[in-house]
Amino acid sequence: MAYNPQVTDAKVVSYNPKNGLFEIVANLKDRTVCRLTYESDETGGAKATHISRLLQEPCPICRKDFLCNCMDKFKENIAGQALEHTGVPTA
Predict the structure, then answer these.
(1) Residue 36's Cα: distance from chain center in Å?
(2) What pLDDT is recorded for position 71?
């Protein structure tokens, strides 16, 4: 069975308008919570640079209850869904 992450809720938790960096916390359908770090580009879009799973639930992929890098494979998918919920923050 392939893992298919689905973002149910997301909110911007920090935004720095000087350098265009911002963070979004995304809640997934399987109760996993992830923090995504973005950087803004010149065209007004955003690119996800990092994803980390907040350690509230075991990893849905490897079932480890500590740090793992499993969510890196799904960074672009989760980041796109999170941006659909929140949009790119503006100054």
Answers:
(1) 3
(2) 93
